[in-house]
C-alpha cells in the first residue's frame, strides 16, 4: 500500500501506540517530544552493509520494555548520518533511516535515528519531523489514539506478515566460476549483500565466551547466512571454518557434518546403506590379500574402481575384466590410495540423473550422458545434459538421500537400473551451470527463496539463561 496522508490532523497525547510496518514492528509505545527534530528508535547490534554508493543498516529492536528475549531483526537504506545531542547534553553520531509510521489506519513516511535507548522508559521517541502537519498535541493526555497490544508479537500472523529485509550473506568459495557469480548476481538482484569469502584466508578465534571468524586481519561481520562452496581439496579446513560459523549461530545452507560425510565416499555409502537407499554393490578393504575377496563381494567384471577422494570423474576407473580390476587395485594400493570397488550398472549405458534438492524438494533434474567412448557422464569431462522427467521412485530416492546427510541443498546422482534407482553420489556443493542451462530454471533464485524463509522469521525469542 502506498503512503497516504491523513485528511484531518490526528490528536496525540504525550504517549501513543504506533506501528512501523515496514520494519516488522506492528506495535510500540512512543513518547512525543516536540523539542526533538527527528524521531528515535531503540536499536542495538547496529551494523552497516551493502555498497558504498547505497549503504544499508541492519539492526535489531526490543519493542517490549523488559523483554530482551523478544527480538525483531530489521534493515533499511541509510539516508543520512547526523550528530544528535541527547537530553543530557551528550553528542552521538547516529544513522538516519526513513520508514512509514502507522497510526489508526493512516501512515506516512518519517525519519528515524537509531540509538540505544535501553535506559529510557520509552522504546521510541516521536520528534517534530514526524508530527508536522499530521498531529495536534494534547500535552496533558496520553493514548488518544486506539491502544494496541504487545500480544501481536506472539501470533502466527505476525510471523507470516514479517516484511522482507535485506540480508548479508557470505559465500565461502575460492573460485570465480559460474556458480559463485550467479550466487552474487541473484542475491544482489533480490536486494541482499553477498560477499565472497576465500575459505583458506579465514582464521578463527576459538573460545567459550566470544568465538569469532577473522579474515585478512579483521573480524568478519555478522552474516545472516553462509552458502558453503568448499572445494574437495580443502574439505577439513573448510568444515572447521563452517563449524565456527555454526558456533556463532549463523545459519548455514549446508552444515559441516553433512559436507564432511558426503565427501568421504566410504562414509557416504555407509550412511546410505543405513538409510536403506539403493546403490551399486560396494566393497572396501585395506589388505592386499583381500583383492580377490573384494572383487567377489561386488560381482563379476566389468567393475568400477573409485578413489575415495575422487571428484568430477577423476580417479574413477572402469575395469572390463577381472584381470584388469586386479591390476588397477594393485596400482592404487601401490600409491597408498584408499578406494572402493563397485559393480558396473550396464543398463545405465553411460548416463545418470542429477536431481537437485533444495529445502526438501527436487527442484530440477537433468540426464547427463558421457562423451563418446567415456562411461563417465560428468559435464566437466565433456558430457552433455538435458532436462529429464523423473519418476516418483527416483524423486523419493533423491529426497531420502539428501535427508540422510541432513543437507538443505544437494545434487543427488543416480542410475536407472533394472531394480530401481541406485544412488552414485550425494554432492553437497553442486554446480548450477549445467542444471540451469539444461532446464532453463532459476535454481539460484529457488535457493535464495529457501534462505529468505529460514533467516527472515520474526519475532525471534532468545532462550533465557537460567
From TrEMBL:
Signal peptide: none annotated. It comes from Roseovarius pelagicus. Its cofactor is Mg(2+); Mn(2+). GO terms for cellular component: ribosome. This is 30S ribosomal protein S6--L-glutamate ligase. GO terms for molecular function: ligase activity. Residues 269-452 form the ATP-grasp domain. Keywords: ATP-binding, Ligase, Magnesium, Manganese, Metal-binding, Nucleotide-binding, Protein biosynthesis, Ribonucleoprotein, Ribosomal protein. InterPro entries: Asp_endopeptidase, ATP-grasp, ATP-grasp_RimK-type, ATP_grasp_subdomain_1, Peptidase_aspartic_dom_sf, Rimk_N, Rp_bS6_RimK/Lys_biosynth_LsyX. It is an enzyme of class 6 (ligase). Its EC number is 6.3.2.-.
